[in-house]
Structure formats: structure tokens, C-alpha cells
Specification:
This protein is α/β, with parallel strands linked by helices. It has three domains: about 1-55 and about 425-440 and about 455-475, Roll (Urease, subunit C, domain 1), CATH 2.30.40.10; about 55-260 and about 345-410, TIM Barrel (Alpha-Beta Barrel), CATH 3.20.20; about 265-345, Dna Ligase, domain 1 (2-Layer Sandwich). It contains 17 helices and 23 strands. A seven-stranded mixed beta sheet has the order 3-2-7-20-21-22-23, with no helix packed on it. Strands 11-12-13-14-15-19 form a six-stranded parallel beta sheet. A four-stranded mixed beta sheet has the order 5-4-1-6, with no helix packed on it. The two termini are about 30 Å apart. It binds zinc ion (ZN).
Length: about 475
């Protein structure tokens, strides 16, 4: 007797091969049958007119940051995602707070909505050993960092991540990172990087990532690849060529992308290279900021704890309304203790499309778990819409890639990169992580004005053999595990 039988669907098994009619049988947490099902089952799911695929893998998430507040991950599961890679951009709170092992234990005790795969953040490791110091590590410090990384890997991390635009990653030179990457490589991990530059110095930054891959002999994952700021639009072609040639030369490089032309960051990053702490007084800071070329009309306030009423406002318009210059307003916001988060429309749709269509790219939301609608928070819609947006807008509407290709970018390809053989593919013996959706209806609904909206068209999500979304109805079962 099966626990679940999924019948009459079109199976898109994750490998990229054309969808075909096949039933799926699940028993316990595993897929036990792919083909024609004649056995009875406790639960029968009719997938007529629906596509059946492996649960999606989000290769780039920050849900570990919100895993304590929002462990059920409804906004993630409703996108069809069953596994998230966390600990990205050099940031792993577990390492800073004590040990990754304890952080993971804590998560397992509470239960978690999706499967999680952890990376160990280089920024967190460096902070622990060297604080925010802008210098090379001593030999002793380097050894300490290596041993923290080693422990984190022993406790469950599947690689190293960096955030080289952030403090303290920005202070680390290529060789320092390569030394750590070697530790991860020896234990079969990957190297995932938020590049040192996503705009003016993008090409150099990509070359650095490839160089680290070569020096440490480690698979490289370039995170949320983009060409930031108008003057850099069109660079994606050159960047993808660089990745191709690195692959030809034997370094296993991939990238990931989210399907939006805006990114979300804190205001001080949005006005780079401006650094408030470098100025003596208000007048000088204002002069300095005026010299920094910023497209204020493209920057929107996403979350300001000091004044929630301005969330969603455009910086230029708001400044006009207040009778200030945008620089004066920005300084007021930068002077705030709680960093002000902004959404900045500085990417080109053509580059986004190029990267989505690139055969070695995966899909990563760069988002995180959220709970209920917060009408004051204008968070980025990527946390609610990334995966359905790929399948609705870029596959069905724009026909940029086939459904099978898109699914493979969300399933078997990232699973292979992460060295996981029993997820990301529908086959007998694999884990019962399944997403069932209507390819004609799947649509993201989250917008910049109203990001807290679940997508349409995802009918069922099964995680480790448990039905989490049943005919569109979510139930909080915390069926996820930490994959070590
Ligand atoms: Zn990042």
C-alpha cells in the first residue's frame, strides 16, 4: 500500500528531458514508483492537466536569518521550493553566535518548513577572529579561521560563502579566501560568492571568483549575477563568456539569478562609493554625497524603522515633498541607527534575460522566509514570487526557455552542484520532494507595491513524503530537514 499516489500528470523529472505521462508512488519519505501505478494508496492526487516535478531548490537564500521568527516558510513553499541553500553572502549567524552545530540543532528542535543546506560565511568567520579590521590576517589568525571553517563543515556546512562587497569580506584579499576555499574543497564543499563588484568592476570580480576556484580546485557558484547601474548594462554577454571559458579550462563555475530588475540593499550600499564615516561634519558629508553620482529617481525606500510611513516612497519624490535635496534626505536616513533598506531599479531586463537563459545558470531568490502580510514593509517581491515568475513570465509568456530547461535549473542541476544525488530529480529511491503545478496558470502575484502576495498555479507541494500544500491549501508541518 502506497502512502501517496500521484496519477495522470505530466512528469518533468528534473533532468531536462521532455515531459511524459507517468504516475508517482510515495511511501514514507521516498519515491518508490515512477510509471503506471496499480497499487492502492492512502492518498490519491489527480494531476490531470498538471505538471509534476521535483521540489525546487533555491540555491541562494537568506532564510537562516529569519528561520527563528518564521520557521514555517509558507512564502517559500508556496513557490514550490522544498530546499533552500542558506548561509550566503558571507553571513552565517550560527557561526557568530557560537557554533553552526548548535544553531542547526536549535532549528531541528523547533522544526523547519523546508529542507536547508548551510554554507559557512567567510564574513562571519573573519569577524569572529579579526573583528572589522582592515588588514591581512596573521598566520595565526588564518589558522584560526581555517579551523572555524573546518568545524562548521563537520557540523553540517556544505561549503564556503563570501560577501566581498561587505565588511569584513571587502578587506580579504584573493589569497586569503583561496586558503579557506582549499579547506572547503578538501571536504567536498563548494565556494559561493557575492562578488566584490556587481557593477563597474564586475569583470575583475568574476575573474577573481574563477581564480579562487582554480587556486583551491573548488566548484564556484557566482551569486545573484547582475550588471548593476546603467553604464554597465550589456556586460552580461562578456561575463557569461568568461564563465564558459573557465569551464572549458576545468573550473566548475555556475551562476544564479533572480528574475527582477531591482535589487534590495541598505541605503549606504545603494549610494556607493559614498562612506558617511569618512566625513568630519554634516556640511562636508553633504558635499561628498553631492559628488557621488546617484540616480535618486531609481531608488525606493523599502523599510525605514524610524518612519514606516515613508516605506515605498521614491527618494527623489519624497525629498521634493519635504522641500529638501535628495542628498539632504539621504544623509538624514543614513544617520539613522537602524540601516534603512532600499529597493533600487538599476538592472536591465536584457541582461536578466541573458543570465536566465544561460545554460549554466540556476535560480536563486536572494530572499528569505516571511510570515504574515506586513503592510508597512515593502520587501522585495522575490521572496514571494521568484520561482513562479520564471515559469510564468520567462517560460510561458516570453518563451525564453523551455519548461523542462527551467525546471532543471531549479532542481537537478543545483542538486548536482551541491553533490546531492537523491533530491532534485524524480526517480525511484529519491526523496519525496514534489511540486505539482499548472503550467498554463502559474503566475507570480507579488509586486513592489504589494510584495506579500502568494503566487497562483501551484496546487501541491510534497516535502519528504508529507503533503504541505494540498489543492492550494497550506498547512504548517515543519517537515524539512537540515541536509548535511
Ligand atoms: Zn548577496
Amino acid at each position: 500500500m502506497l502512502d501517496i499516489a500521484i496519477v495522470n500528470g505530466i512528469l518533468i523529472d528534473g533532468t531536462g528531458k521532455p515531459g511524459y505521462r507517468a504516475d508517482i508512488g510515495i511511501k514514507g519519505d521516498r519515491i518508490v514508483k515512477v510509471g503506471k501505478i496499480e497499487e492502492p494508496a492512502v492518498m490519491n492526487i489527480s494531476a490531470d492537466q498538471l505538471a509534476v516535478s521535483p521540489g525546487f531548490i533555491d540555491i541562494h537564500s537568506h532564510s537562516d536569518l529569519s528561520s527563528r521568527n518564521f520557521p514555517e516558510m509558507e512564502n517559500i513553499l508556496r513557490q514550490g521550493v522544498t530546499t533552500q541553500v542558506v548561509g550566503n553572502c558571507g553571513i552565517t549567524p550560527g557561526i557568530l553566535e557560537g557554533s553552526l552545530g548548535r544553531f542547526i540543532e536549535d532549528i531541528e528542535k523547533r522544526g523547519i518548513g523546508t529542507n536547508l543546506i548551510f554554507l559557512a560565511g567567510q564574513g562571519s568567520i573573519r569577524s569572529k577572529v579579526m573583528g572589522r579590521e582592515n588588514r591581512r590576517p596573521t598566520e595565526d589568525e588564518l589558522e584560526k579561521m581555517k579551523s572555524i571553517l573546518e568545524s562548521a563543515i563537520d557540523e553540517g556546512a556544505k561549503g564556503l560563502s563570501t560577501g566581498l562587497e561587505y565588511i569584513p569580506g571587502i578587506f580579504s584579499l584573493t589569497e586569503e579566501i583561496a586558503e579557506l576555499a582549499k579547506v572547503a574543497a578538501r571536504r567536498g564543499g563548494i565556494y559561493s560568492t557575492h562578488l566584490r563588484s556587481e557593477g563597474d568592476e564586475l569583470e575583475l570580480a568574476v575573474k577573481e571568483a574563477i581564480e579562487i576556484g582554480r587556486l583551491a580546485d573548488i566548484p564556484v557558484q557566482i551569486a545573484h549575477l547582475k550588471t548593476e547601474k546603467k553604464r554597465n548594462w550589456g556586460k552580461s554577454e562578456r561575463i557569461l563568456q568568461l564563465i564558459d571559458s573557465a569551464r572549458v579550462n576545468g573550473t566548475d563555475v555556475n551562476c544564479d539569478v533572480y528574475p527582477y530588475t531591482a535589487y534590495m540593499t541598505s541605503l549606504d550600499f545603494a549610494v556607493q562609493p559614498f562612506d558617511l564615516s569618512a566625513y568630519k561634519n554634516y556640511r562636508e558629508a553633504l558635499e561628498g554625497l553631492k559628488k557621488t553620482p546617484v540616480d535618486w529617481d531609481l531608488i525606493y525606500i523599502s523599510k525605514c524603522d524610524m518612519d514606516g510611513g515613508i516605506n515605498g516612497c521614491n527618494v527623489l519624490e519624497l525629498a521634493r515633498r519635504k522641500g529638501m535635496s535628495p542628498e539632504e534626505l539621504a544623509l538624514e536616513l543614513l544617520n539613522n541607527d537602524d540601516p534603512v533598506r532600499v529597493i533600487s531599479f538599476q538592472m536591465s531586463e536584457e541582461d536578466v534575460k541573458n543570465i536566465i537563459a544561460y545554460r549554466h545558470s540556476f535560480i536563486g531568490s536572494d530572499g528569505s522566509g516571511y510570515r504574515k502580510r506586513d503592510e508597512f514593509d515593502r520587501t522585495h517581491p522575490r521572496s514571494f514570487g521568484t520561482f513562479p515568475r520564471i515559469l510564468g513570465r520567462y517560460v510561458r509568456e516570453l518563451k525564453l526557455l523551455s519548461l523542462e530547461e527551467a525546471i532543471s535549473k531549479m532542481t537537478s542541476l543545483p542538486a548536482k552542484k551541491l553533490n546531492i544525488s537523491d533530491r532534485g530529480i524524480v526517480k525511484e529511491g529519491a526523496y519525496g520532494d514534489i511540486t505539482i503545478f499548472n503550467p498554463d496558470k502559474i503566475t507570480d502575484k507579488a509586486t513592489y507595491d504589494d510584495p506579500f502576495q502568494y503566487p497562483e498555479g501551484i496546487e501541491y507541494v510534497i516535502l519528504n513524503g508529507k503533503i504541505i500544500i494540498d489543492k492550494g491549501i497550506f498547512s504548517d508541518k515543519r517537515a524539512g530537514i537540515v541536509i548535511r
